[in-house]
UniProtKB/TrEMBL annotation, chain A:
InterPro entries: CO_DH_flav_C, CO_DH_flav_C_dom_sf, Diverse_Substr_Oxidored, FAD-bd_PCMH, FAD-bd_PCMH-like_sf, FAD-bd_PCMH_sub1, FAD-bd_PCMH_sub2, Mopterin_DH_FAD-bd
Organism phylogeny: Bacteria, Pseudomonadati, Pseudomonadota, Alphaproteobacteria, Hyphomicrobiales
Name of the protein described by the UniProt record: FAD binding domain-containing protein
SUPFAM superfamilies, A to Z: CO dehydrogenase flavoprotein C-terminal domain-like, FAD-binding/transporter-associated domain-like
Swiss-Prot/TrEMBL keywords: FAD, Flavoprotein, Oxidoreductase
A Pfam match: FAD_binding_5
Native species: Shinella lacus
TrEMBL record, chain B:
Positions of the 2Fe-2S ferredoxin-type domain: 5-81
InterPro entries per record: 2Fe-2S-bd, 2Fe-2S-bd_dom_sf, 2Fe-2S_ferredoxin-like_sf, 2Fe-2S_ferredoxin-type, 2Fe2S_fd_BS, Beta-grasp_dom_sf, Diverse_Oxidoreductases
Keywords, sorted A to Z: 2Fe-2S, Iron, Iron-sulfur, Metal-binding, Oxidoreductase
Gene3D superfamilies in UniProt: 3.10.20.30, [2Fe-2S]-binding domain (1.10.150.120)
Provenance organism: Shinella lacus
Full protein name: (2Fe-2S)-binding protein
Coiled-coil spans in chain: none
Lineage: Bacteria, Pseudomonadati, Pseudomonadota, Alphaproteobacteria, Hyphomicrobiales
């Protein structure tokens, strides 16, 4: 229940950080430590070198641009929860964050740490999938930007190379007045979700779906976007029939099974939660259209 | 082959300088090196909340931070709440409302809820329960804890 010995490094600049990453082997980067520290305490992870991201300046920020919001990797979950910019332009992120752990873990936990840990049921991983995230990875060779699909490979696995760190993530903005809904089911509030579904929607002036995005988490090893259905439902009215079609698509995702939760139950939850998230997004989009 | 660092930390207003092994958690640093055993360790993986302390004013899990990460920072623990033997209003309300039975979870709950009331001086019961969700009490005393926190808030607002 105590971490095994490691050599600790506290770089203060990204140049120092990439230099360390380029020269050391057997490295783990610690950000908020809310996933890595438990794994080290249990000795599931026993790194030879631990590099602290907390001492590196300039990695915690929220920068609102016309088409996206860029968030620095070290930005704390609690900071995002309190950010007026996030509340105004990307309110679903605040809703998702209320399900992430507890206030004490959100005070330390970072968006970059959540993404790099890549738990398939993590709410911020879901947000990255939903918002077509573009992630910037940095090494001594410079920056490279990759899509969320290229970033997340599977359970606790990303394509970040040993000499790279995640510097920032860009989440695509949706127009003012879009509808949004985030719903999840967990055994207790703050636990890892068994299933979480997020939905963004814009309506045209007839009240029909103009644009739709749905991300389903906890069912597979990465969040799944219902891409085909998002396209097919364009132009249809967001009614009970549409919700049923969407829920059916979520239920068709091949679901994982473990000692506690069967795949059938996960699929059932995916259908139920998808319907709820879609309905909530519809209600919110609707109100704005009529207003 | 121990990886050692000398750190300077202010705990409950008192500055300390100590050489620590870098793998030392903040919780163990407080308990074993500074002998401040009021901070309790339940699960050591961030689930129970018993070890909650405040670092730079924010309530955090001290089992999920390394002591070396608090270098140059200020830490507040349960020992710093009462001054000259005088309990804080929240501690008094825990006494009055029977907000503790065995007391193991109490230090973490006091540190969490003290921070919470500074942020939200007029909470609803539901908000108190949400803020309390990261602290486990196995005596099942939540109702009395919620009562104590709500009474503390009401008292601070001059309603009691």
């Amino acid at each position: 229940m105590k971490p095994s010995p490691f050599t600790y490094h506290a770089p203060t600049t990204t140049a120092e950080l990439t230099e360390l990453l380029g020269t050391l082997d057997d490295v783990r980067i610690i950000a908020g430590g809310q996933s890595l520290m438990p794994m080290m305490n249990f000795r599931f992870v026993q790194p030879g070198h631990l590099i602290d991201l907390n001492t590196v300046g300039g990695l915690a920020y929220v920068d609102v641009q016309r088409d996206f919001i860029e968030i620095g990797a070290s930005t704390r979950q609690r900071f995002l929860q309190r950010s007026q910019d996030i509340a105004k332009h990307m309110p679903i992120v605040g809703e998702a964050l209320s399900h992430v752990g507890h206030r004490q873990t959100r005070a330390r936990g970072t968006i970059g740490g959540s993404l790099c840990h890549f738990d398939p049921s993590a709410e911020l991983v879901n947000m990255a999938a939903l918002h077509d995230a573009v992630l910037t990875l940095t090494s001594v060779d410079g920056d490279r930007s990759i899509s969320f699909g290229e970033f997340g490979l599977g359970f606790l696995t990303t394509s970040v190379q040993p000499n790279e760190f995640l510097r920032s993530v860009r989440l695509a903005r949706w127009p003012e007045g879009h509808g949004y809904g985030f719903e999840e089911f967990a055994m207790r509030h703050g636990d890892f979700a068994i299933c979480a579904v997020s939905c963004l929607m814009t309506l045209d002036d007839r009240g029909a779906i103009d644009r739709l995005a749905v991300a389903v988490s906890g069912v597979s090893e990465t969040p799944v976007r219902l891409t085909e259905m998002e396209g097919r439902l364009r132009g249809t009215m967001p009614d009970a029939g549409t919700a049923t079609d969407l829920a059916a698509a979520a239920g068709d995702i091949e679901a994982m099974s473990d000692a506690y939760i069967t795949s059938d139950y996960r699929s059932h939850l995916a259908r139920v939660i998808t319907r709820r998230a879609f309905t909530k997004a519809t209600e919110r989009a609707d109100q704005r259209v009529r207003a | 082959m121990k990886d050692l660092r000398t750190i300077s930390v202010t705990v409950n207003g008192t500055p300390y300088s100590r050489e620590v092994e870098t793998r030392r958690t903040l919780a163990d640093f407080l308990r074993l090196d500074l002998k401040l055993t009021g901070t309790h360790l339940g699960c050591e993986h961030g689930a129970c909340g018993a070890c909650t302390v405040r670092v730079e004013g924010e309530a955090v899990r001290s089992c999920l931070m390394l002591a070396v990460q608090t270098n140059g920072k200020s830490v507040a623990t349960v020992e710093g709440l009462a001054k000259d033997g005088k309990l804080t209003p929240m501690q008094n309300q825990f006494w009055e409302k029977h907000g503790l039975q065995c007391g193991f979870c109490t230090p973490g709950i006091l540190m969490t809820m003290t921070e919470f009331l500074e942020e939200n001086p007029d909470p609803t019961e539901s908000e108190v329960r949400d803020a309390l969700s990261g602290n486990i009490c196995r005596c099942t005393g939540y109702q009395a804890i919620v009562d104590a926190v709500l009474a503390t808030a009401a008292q601070a607002r001059g309603e009691q």
